[in-house]
Amino acid sequence: MFERPRSGECAILVHVDFPGDRDPEDLQEFSDLATSAGATPVAVITAVRSSPDPKYFVGSGKAEEIHLAVVEHKAEVVLFNHSLSPSQERNLEKLLQCRVLDRTGLILDIFAQRARSFEGKLQVELAQLQHLSTRLVRGWSHLERQKGGIGLRGPGETQLETDRRLLGARIKQLHRRLDKVQRQRAQGRRARTRAELPTASLVGYTNAGKSTLFNTLTGAGVYAADQLFATLDPTLRRLDIAEVGPVILADTVGFVKHLPHDLVAAFRATLEETRGADLLLHVVDASDPERSERIGQVNQVLQEVGAGEVPQLLVYNKLDRLDEPPRLERDAEGRPTRVWVSALSGAGLGLLREALGDLLKGPLACGWLRLPAAAGRLRAELFRSGAVRQERFENGGACWLEVVMPRTELERQCARQGVEVRLFSAPEGDFLAGAAQAP
Hints:
Layout: E1 10-17, H1 24-36, E2 40-48, H2 60-73, E3 77-80, H3 86-96, E4 99-101, H4 103-114, H5 118-132, H6 159-194, E5 199-204, H7 210-218, E6 235-241, E7 245-251, H8 261-266, H9 268-275, E8 279-285, H10 291-304, E9 312-317, E10 327-330, E11 336-340, H11 349-360, E12 364-371, H12 376-384, E13 388-393, E14 399-406, H13 407-417, E15 423-424
Helix pairs in contact: 1-4, 4-5, 5-6, 12-13
């Protein structure tokens, strides 16, 4: 059989158009995926079929054309922009005498290169093993032989059966580890819920500029590049919004068209950050002519992971590529719906913060709050946040503050100082003469 190269790699790209599924941008995205994986496309072969061929997916004549291209360009791998069955992969590898990868295998290879965190590596390995579990036979005939010899005689178990058993055991182990990570993430979300910290998650099509926007807003310094799936691991950072206070901002993996369902299942623990968020910042490449289709594809994946009902704010990024000013659009009720920004130049980020403040702040607390004399630190914090309208002092040293601010933020600050939140329509008690003050 053929030798399987370890890396790299002149690649032949194969794309088939089927009725009702013809998208001129799909081939360009596939080429970008191949480049992101480190391959060098040397030829693109296209075909039109009414249905896939059961043996070669593309038919025997087109398969021979691919074989001639492999020989001519000395290609090391053939990439299909479709999902292939295990038997189709085996048949193609036997004919082409080189590696054959479908779209799922290509995306998994990119994920394996991008994973940095412990959780990300576990998820990539799980997805790879689940994809490999039906492809163990591939091109190796020795896997079908039974083990034999001194110390190796067993109950007739073949090497292939042994590998399948070990593979299944490893998949179960990975599921247990990911379940533990999922519980840890749920515990972190519960802690943020108890602290009443609002959470916003960045979602969107891959290469829409989510990580660049995340870095600009928080100074996190996560890896960002002009390539598909540049960021895989989720990152959480604190973002201070004037009208709300501290907000947890999460950067998640980008989506792509025809994202395989098994990959969505393997990365469900990571995507739970979107399901548990109070707001989704749906980042869209404003310069992409297919942006409407991209929005629909992202919403479809959000439905699959159970985040379809979470409120969204559309953030049209890369405004620097268009001759348009930044702007904030609102609906008939005055709630922000779209904001146009440039994460690279920083244009419109003030409008984005304004929209975040409007969407994340809860009901306002308006009234008079009584603070004991020992709550001087809380008084200073309320003045610093600009929430105090008036102040009056009692004879005993306690003070009354007329406050207007989000109720959740007021409750958070009072709980930290051990002060009960009770608002009155007017101050009560004996006051010092002339103690009424305006801040």
